[in-house]
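Translate sequence into structure tokens.
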Amino acid sequence: MPEPTSQLGRQIHADMARLDAALRAPGIVSAGTGQTADLGGGLTVRPIAIIEDSRCPLNVTCLWAGRLRLRALVAGIDTELTLGEGYYQSARGIVHFEIASPGPWAEWPSDELGPRPAYRFGFRRGGG
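Result follows.
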């Protein structure tokens, strides 16, 4: 894909590159909706559905930061995870929901970037 020409397109392109790198960082295991992230030792996370994505768009000023809530199966147990807020303790270990891509953008210049990509989620196994 050619480099975006608009300021918004360049900002989103840079944000997507940052999030893609974060999803590949050591210790992070990623999965899309319906896929399974295997964190080892029988600890798996399978995102099922977005419950809420009220995150403040990166190109808007908001009074509330919002949140992303995800319904997921963690080690086979139906639960809710919230991006960046605490952790989920299962019998198999602790899961941290750390990254979601794409980031929140009020507008998406499809003519430059193509359609908005499907969600990808990054999880980290916690200590304990």
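Note: The radius of gyration is 16 Å.
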